[in-house]
Amino acid sequence: MQIKVKAWLACCVCALALAITLMPSSSHAQGTATPASVSAPTLGEAPATPPVITDVKPNTNNPYGLASLWKTSDAVAKTVLLLLLVMSIGSWYILVVKVLEQAKMMRQAKAATQNFWSAGTIERGAAALEANSPYRFMADAASSAVKKHVGLMGHVDLNDWIAMGIQRAVERIRSSTQNGLAFLATVGSIAPFVGLFGTVWGIYHALTAIGISGQASIDKVAGPVGEALIMTAIGLAVAVPAVLSYNWLVRRNKAVMDDVRAFSQDLHAVVLGSVKKSLTD
Q1: How far apart are CA 147 and CA 254, in angstroms?
Q2: Candidate ranges 72-76, 105-109, 220-224; pick with highest mean pLDDT
C-alpha cells in the first residue's frame, strides 16, 4: 500500500515537472502564432487571386526631341535651324557635284593622253577630244594664240606669247575646279558658331520660362535646356562633313591640276615646235 502511494506520488511529481518543462514552449508557440490581421482561409473558401499585370506599352512620344524643339521654338531659333539645314544641303550637294566633276576630268585626262598626241596636227588632236574637255580648251587656246600672233601682238616673242595663252587657259581651268570650295570652307568655319548662337538663345528662353513658372525641378529644366543644347550638336554635325569634304576635294583638285599642268607644258613644246617646223618648210 505504501509502495502504491509512493508510486502515485512519484507519477504526480513527474507529471508536474513535465508540465513545468512544456510551459515555455507553449508560450513561444503562442507568440509565433499567425497575427489576427492575417486570417487563414476558412474551409470552402477559394484563395484570393493575385492581380494580373498586363504589358505596359512604352511611350513613343518623346517630349524632348527635335519635333518638340521645332514646336516650342520661336522665330529666331527656327531661322537658325533652317540656316543650318541650308548649309548642310549645300555642302552635300557641292561634295557630290565636285566628285563627279573631278572623276570626269580624270577620265578626260586619260582620253587626251590616248587620242591627242597620236594626231597629226594640233587641230586634229583637239577635234578628237570632247567638246567640254579642259584639254581641248587648252589646245584651242594654243591654236588661237598662234593665229593671233600678228600686228602689235607679233612684237611679243612667239615662245612667250604661246606660253601666255596656254597659261591663261590653265588658270581658267583651275578657277573652275575651285568653285564651291569657298562655300564648304565658310560652312566649316561658321556652322559651329551658328549652332552655339541657337544654344545660347534657347537657354535664355528656357531660363526665362522657368523663372516665370517658378519651378526649377529637374523635369522642368532638363527638357528646355536639353533642346537648346541640340543646336550645338546640329552645328557640329553640319561643320564636320563640310571641313572633311573641303580637305578631300582640295587634295583631289591638286591631282587633277597636276595632270592639266603636265599637259599644258607638253602642249607648249609641241605647238612651238610645229610652228617652227612650218616656218622652216
Answers
A1: 32
A2: 105-109
Predicted confidence (pLDDT) per residue in 173-186, tens digit: 999 999 999 999 99
User: Whose grid coordinates read 563627279?
Assistant: 100
Annotate 58-82 with b (16+ C-beta within 10 A) or e (fewer): eeeeeeeeeebbeebbeeebeebbe
Domain membership of residue 175 as a residue range: 81-280
Residue 48 lies in a domain: no
Domain count, the chain: 1
The Cα 21–Cα 190 span in angstroms is 93
Q: How far apart are CA 227 and CA 81, in angstroms?
A: 12
Q: Are 202 and 228 in contact (CB under 8 A)?
A: yes
Q: How far apart are CA 139 and CA 268, in angstroms?
A: 9
Q: Give the single-character DSSP code of 24.
A: H
> Is residue 140 a contact partner of residue 172, using CB atoms and an 8 Å limit?
no
The C-alpha cell that represents 63 in the structure block:
517630349
Q: For 258-270, what is each residue's pLDDT tens digit?
A: 999 999 999 999 9
Taking the C-alpha atoms of residue 207 and residue 28, their distance in angstroms, rounded to an integer, is 65
Q: How many CB atoms lie under 10 A from the CB of residue 136?
A: 20
Terminal-to-terminal C-alpha distance of the chain: 173
Are 128 and 115 within 8 A, CB to CB? Answer: yes
Cell numbers of 40, please?
Answer: 487563414
- CB-based burial, 245-267: b 16+ in 10 Å, e otherwise: bbeebeebbeebbebbeebbeeb
